[in-house]
From TrEMBL:
Positions of the UniProt region annotated as Disordered: 1-31
Catalytic reactions of this protein: ATP + protein L-histidine = ADP + protein N-phospho-L-histidine
Official protein name in the record: histidine kinase
Record's keyword annotation contains Kinase: yes
Amino acid sequence: MRAEGDSDRGARTSLRPRFTGRFRSSGGSSADATEVLDAGVAVAAGLRAPAGSPVAVEALRRLAGLCGADAAGLLLPGRPETWWGPGREDGVALGRRAHGRRLSEDDLLALPLGTDPGPDAPVLVLGGGVPHAAARRIAGFTGDALERARLEEGEAEAEAARLRELRAQISPHFVYNALTTIASFVRSDPARARDLLETFAEFIRHSLAARGDYTPLAGEFRSVEAYLTLARAVLGDRLRVQVRVAPEVLPVPVPVLALQPLVENAVQHGVEKTPDGGLVQVSGEAEGDVCVIAVEDDGPGMNPEHARAVLAGTAEGAGLALVNVDRRLRAVYGAEYGLVIETAPGAGTRIVLRIPRFQPGVVVR
């Protein structure tokens, strides 16, 4: 079945886009090469769009242009087909018959994608008599783009799972103690109870209900201040706090819940385990293009080997929140960033978080 307005084979030829022949030619001007590269980038981005969407169709139009095809289709398992150009019905039918092997019919070519395509592999269909060498190259490019998109989707799902795990690790013991403390002030000091309840609501809003991947560092510090206010209400004079933040780092976007788990760790392991309590210091400053956040306590500290095991995720029963934060930071910014633990027995613990002040793709939405 031909698309509307497609009366014969000549009509197909007339629809060839303006990149015809460039993908398979070895020469060409630098302007042509730039156009081809730009088209390749646009195609790779468009293939991440939902199947059948206008963005995905436009990606196939540009993909067809790279190899001189007058029609292109993409069939993904469990998703609607995406098609650009004439001959949709014939092309889709051919693609569905491919079952992991290359098929050709008239001027249509179906190419399963992937290094070892099985019966459920994605299939690229090209129309217009595209030479097999060019078709193989464009199929390889398409398969790589889809694989990158799949990996990025997997990383996004992993990031969401890590954030859910961090939220689940917020201490129920702390929540219970905070609410019990607030309740104790309801009759004796109603104004303080109201203030603490509003602080608790702010803490819960940021920690459990924040949307999006990133938040300004100012938002993280507000959550930290809310947590410390509640912790001081619970611990009283046993907890002393100092917070110093340079204004220039407040707009820096950071992953949600990158800072609060570090402060909670300092309170739980540096203050609550010490009979006389202790001091928690939180600081933030810019060192050139790097944002440096430090959370320090004067508690019992730990063996440096144990600290290394905590960040490696091999320490039994401790440090899961720190591991989670460290892995999230390194996944976003690279292996040179993340957490560093400075500690020794009897010397307290200092956790340093380093991230770039500016990172492509890291924005607050």
